[in-house]
Inverse folding.
């Protein structure tokens, strides 16, 4: 955590509204993108982000909250809210961010092939454990480092590397198994 982030967090712990606003501006869009990919519904994602910041503020008011690793703390709250939600109802299919790759995709056959691969990957991701899905989302979609994922998931870096390795191996088995069936 940089000294600027530490200063920002110290100010937030004193309920400095400017610091709280800066934290919201810095993390809300990232948390929203994470939540919308996890739940597949924009309104629910907005609700999860709002609740994440509400719980963060309540923790600060009661003298709790993060001492460091603010980003990890916020993602952990969001993840826990989403997990609690899925305990009450099953998750929808995971969606990949296709807009990210919408630049000149080429010929229609190439576009169709890419869409079919994305659909296969989405279905394969659903067969992973929730922890494996979270590691894949944070590492390959959010771009977190192993250390950032470890802080978010409250695990060691070694455990994160191991879980990512197992998740990728599972995905490979699932995808290769599908190819063998067809």
């Amino acid at each position: 955590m940089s000294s600027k982030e530490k200063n920002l967090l110290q100010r937030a712990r004193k309920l400095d509204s400017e610091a709280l606003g800066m934290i919201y501006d810095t993390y809300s869009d990232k948390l929203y993108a994470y939540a919308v990919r996890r739940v597949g519904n924009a309104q629910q994602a907005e609700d999860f982000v709002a609740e994440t910041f509400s719980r963060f503020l309540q923790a600060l008011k009661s003298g709790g909250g993060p001492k460091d690793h603010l980003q990890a703390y916020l993602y952990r709250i969001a993840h826990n809210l989403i997990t609690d939600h899925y305990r009450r109802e099953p998750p929808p299919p995971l969606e990949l961010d296709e807009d990210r790759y919408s630049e000149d995709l080429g010929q229609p056959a190439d576009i169709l092939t890419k869409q079919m691969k994305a659909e296969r990957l989405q279905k394969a991701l659903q067969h992973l454990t929730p922890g494996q899905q979270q590691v894949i989302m944070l590492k390959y979609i959010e771009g977190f480092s192993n250390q950032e994922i470890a802080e978010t998931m409250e695990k060691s870096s070694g455990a994160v590397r191991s879980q990512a390795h197992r998740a990728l191996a599972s995905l490979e088995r699932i995808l290769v198994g599908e190819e063998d069936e067809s």
